[in-house]
Design a protein that fits this description.
65 residues, single chain, 12% strand, alpha+beta
């Protein structure tokens, strides 16, 4: 599977979630600046691509992963 496709808490595969469905669950700034969200179907943790994901991807690339 793709990197960042699993929950860091329980390792379940993340599922895409509509932006409007997360409006009450994320900070207003995140809602206004992000378009893609994913949710863990088991523990309900939310994820979105942000600067930390970019940094982690760069580190993995530098390691040859």
């Amino acid at each position: 599977k793709e990197p960042f496709s699993r929950c860091v808490e329980c390792n379940a595969l993340l599922e895409p979630m509509a932006k409007e469905a997360v409006k009450e669950r994320v900070p207003p700034y995140v809602f206004s600046t992000q378009e893609r969200f994913s949710c863990c179907p088991q523990c309900r943790r939310l994820y979105w691509p942000a600067t930390h994901q970019q940094r982690m991807a760069e580190e993995l690339k530098a390691l040859g992963v």
